[in-house]
Amino acid sequence: MSDTNLPPNLATPDEQRYTNRLSQETSPYLLQHAHNPVDWYAWGPEAFARAKAEDKPVLLSIGYAACHWCHVMAHESFENERIATIMNLHYVCIKVDREERPDIDALYMDAVQALTGSGGWPMTVWLTPEGLPFFAGTYFPPEDRPGYAIPAFPTLLLRLAQFYKTRRAEVDAQAEEFRAFYEKRGSLALPGLRNLPIAASEVDLSVLTTAERNLERAFDVTQGGFGGAPKFPPAMELEFLLRMHLRETQHPVRLNRIQLAGTKANAPELTPLSIVTRTLDKMAAGGIYDHLGGGFHRYATDDHWLVPHFEKMLYDNALLARVYLHAYQVTGKERYARICRETLDYVRRDMTSPEGGFYATQDADSEGQEGKFYVWRPDEIAAVLDHDDADLCMAVYGVTPQGNFEGSGASVLHLTRPVAEVAAARGISAEEAERRLADARMALFAARSRRVWPGTDDKIVTAWNGLMLRAFAEAAAVFDSHTYMEVATNNAAFLLNTLRTKDGRLLRTARAGKAHISAFLEDYACLALGLLATYEATFDARWFVAARELADQMIALFADDAEGGFFDTASDHEQLVGRPREITDNATPSGNSAAAEVLLWLAALTGERGYRARAETLLLKLAPLMAQSPRGFGNFLCDLDRWLAPSQEIAIIGDLEEPETEDLISIARARYRPNSVIACAAPDDLLANEAIALLAGRPSIAGLSTAYVCTNFTCKLPVTDPDELEEQLGDR
Fold it and tell me: Which fold has domain 15-185?
C-alpha cells in the first residue's frame, strides 16, 4: 500500500517551483494546492484585510480531498498559469477544506443554492471584502465548451472583476440581500413554523406514521432506496424504519400500503422492514459496496447501485455499519452481520491511525483516473485465478469483456445472480462455490493491493470519529468482540487526549501531531454519542463522565435559549457573516439532531429532566417538517421516536467478571432495543454509582447479580434469574 499520509495529486518536482501559503497547513486538501501558481490564502483575517486594503473581491474555493471534480478543476484551472494570473491579479483567493470548516461551507452553500438552485463541490463563491457573497457556482470548465451552459472559468473571472469595479451598487445590493438572508437563516423561526399551533399533546404517533407513508411513496420497489439516480445510501431513514418495524410488531398500525413487487394482487405489501431489507440487500450486492476490501463508496451514479462515485467516507461507513448491525439484530440474518463486520474491518485495516484515530476519507481517483484501483477486466482476473475459479468469479461478479464502467472494458464488481444459481449451472454445490469465491476474493484483494492506491485524507475529524466510535462500540457489544472493543476504547482515549485543549475545550480536527480549529456542535454531539455507546459496551464509567461533560459544555456554548435548539458554532466562535444553524440531516446527522439524541440518552441515565426538556423543545418545533420531508430528517425522526416511545431503563448490579452478571447483560443486549439504556456496575464501583443515577441506591439481592427494569418511570421488582429478566423485557 502507498503512504496513506501522501495526499493525492501532489505537484511534480517541476511544478513545485510554485509554493504558496497553503504549504503551512495540515489539511491534505489544502496541501494538494500548496504548489498551485494561485496565490492562495487559508481562511483568516489576513486575506480579508488585504481585500479591504486593495478593494478587491474575494474568490472563495471550497472542496475536500476525496472530491473527484475538485481534483478536475484544480488540474484544469488552479494549476494553469494563465488562469492563475487572472485570479491573482483581480482577486484575493481563499481555499477552504469543507471537512475542517463546516461552518464556512454551510454558510456559502446557502448562497450557491440560492443563486443556482443546486449545490455541490467544488464550490466557487465570489465575496465582497466583508465576506458577503454576490455570485456563486460549483465547477467551471477552463474554456467554453459547445453545448455546455456554464461559462468558462477565466471568462467568468474577468467579467465578475469588471462587474465589481463598474457596478458596485448592484454588488452591494446583492450582498445586503444575503446579509438579511443569513440573519433569518440563523433562526429557528423558519417559514410556516411560527404559524403552526404545536403543543406536546398534538405531536403524537401520526407524525411518525405520516413520515413512514412519505418514505413509502419515495421508495424504489425494484432497486431499493429512495428516488432515482444518483442514489445515496439512506442509512438514517432505514434506522427510522427499523424503529417503525419494532413499533408495528409490538403495536400494529394499519396503513394503506402499496405492494412490494408492483401491482400484482398477490404481491407482498410494503412494510418498514421490507423497505430496509430490500435496500440493504441491493446495496450489498451492488458496486457501491467493495466486495474485495469491504466498506461502501459514497454513492451510486445510477439508480441500481452499480457504478459508484468511488470515494469512501468515514461517516458513510459508520452509519451503514450500524444499520446493517441493527438489521442483523432484528432479522437474525447472518448476511447483515457479515457486511457490518467487513465494513468495520476495512476501517480498522485501512482507515485507522497507529494512535487510534480514524481517517476522514479515501479518494475516488488513483493515477489520475476515477475508479481505476477498483475495476477489473477479464484478463486481469485470469492472471490471478486459475481458469475455473476465474470463470466462477466473473460469472458471480458480472465481469465481462464489454465491461460496465464508462466504456473502458473494465467492470465494477457486483453480484449478478445468487451464488447457488451460478453454482448449479456449473454442477457444483453452493458451499463449494462459496469456499472458492472466498479464496478468490482474498487472491484478488492481494493483487489489487499491489496497484497504486487512492490517496487517503488522514486528518482526524472529531464528529466523524464519534460516529465510527459508536459503530465499533455497538458492534463490540452485539458480537462480544474484544477486537472491536479495543478499537473503540483506543479511539475514545485518543480523541479525549488529543482533541481537547488544556482547559477542556474540544477541537475539530487533528493531523500530523497538530490538533486545531474550535469544535462545532456536531463534534460535541457525535463524540458524546460515541462515548455513551462506549460506556454501554464496556460499563466503564469514565466514558459516561466524559460524555456528560461534553454535553454540558455543548449546552453552555451552543444552546439558543431564546428559540430552543442549538447553533452550529459556539458563542465565542469567530464571527462570520451569519451564525449557521443546520436543522436537516444530510450525509451525516445534523448537529441539532445528534444533540437531541445525546440529551434524551442522558436524561434516561441520569433522570435529569432538564436534558429531556431541551430535546423536547426542538423536537416539537420541527415535528411538522419531519412528517412532510422525512428524507431530510432521518435522524431527527429516530429522536422523535425515542421521545414518544415508552422509556426503558435497565440497571444491572454485579461484578462484570462474574458469569451471572454476563448472563444478565447478554439478555439485555440480545434484542434490538433502540429506546433502552443499560447501566451496569459492581456494588463497590463508587465512580459509577455516584455518576449514574440509574445505578444509585440499587443493591444486589442476597449478594447475587441483580437486574432492575424500569418502564415509563415505573420499576419492576429486581430479578437475579436471566429467564425472569427476559420476561420483564418482553422477550418471552
Answer: Glutaredoxin (3.40.30)
Residue 484 and residue 473: Cα distance in Å, rounded? 7
For every residue of 127-171, DSSP letters joined together read E-TTS-EEEEES---SS--TT--SPPHHHHHHHHHHHHHH-HHHH
Q: How much is the pLDDT for 14?
A: 47
pLDDT tens digits, 272-312: 999 999 999 999 999 999 999 999 999 999 999 999 999 99
The class that CATH gives domain 646-732 is: alpha beta
Q: Which residues of the chain have pLDDT under 50?
A: 1-15, 190-201, 252-265, 267
CA 626, distance to chain mean position in Å, is: 19
The stretches of 607-685 forming alpha helices (DSSP H) are 609-628, 634-644, 659-669
* Distance (Å, whole) CA 498 – CA 462: 10
pLDDT at 368: 85
Q: Give the single-character DSSP code of 631.
A: G
Q: What is the pLDDT of residue 407?
A: 86
Strand order across the 648-653 sheet? 676-681, 648-653, 706-711, 714-715
| Identical fold between 15-185 and 646-732 | yes
Model pTM above 0.85 = yes
Sign of the dihedral defined by the CA atoms of residues 270, 271, 273, 275, in that order: positive
Helix 521-538 vs helix 591-606: crossing angle, to nearest 10? 40
Please report which helix (H) or strand (E) contains residue 83, including its range.
Answer: helix 81-90
From the number of C-beta atoms within 10 Å of its C-beta (0-12, 13-18, 19+), residue 436 rates as buried
Domain ranges of the chain: 15-185, 374-450, 646-732
Residue 377 grid cell? 477486466
